[in-house]
Amino acid sequence: MYMKNSYTVRMIKNFASKETEKIYHQRFSAKLPQSIQKIALRKLIMLDNASCLEDLRVPPANRLEQLIGDRQGQYSIRINQQYRICFRLEGKDSISDVEIVDYHT
User: Fold this and answer.
1) pTM over cut 0.70
2) CB 3.0–4.6 Å: which of 14, 20, 83, 90 could bond 94 by disulfide?
3) Which residues in the chain land under pLDDT 70?
4) At 81, which CATH number?
5) Structural domain includes residue 43
């Protein structure tokens, strides 16, 4: 079980996907592969505990990216080669519209 830091202001304000919110609350999602759910939870907690966007550059495997095209205004970090966590940065201390996305569909 992963623990959320109770001493930090929460960065995640809302979710764009109910399945992503389930993972965040440590509930199983039947719509997302079981193989990514533990890693996704760890990354969501990392996202929630970040004090700034630059915190998400570590570890480098996150591959923090500012997105373009139809996802302009969003950022992503990698879960694996296929799945990403996409989100919007709202000011300096708020993340919104968090969702787990399959980049290959």
Assistant:
1) yes
2) 90
3) 1-9
4) 3.30.2310.20
5) yes
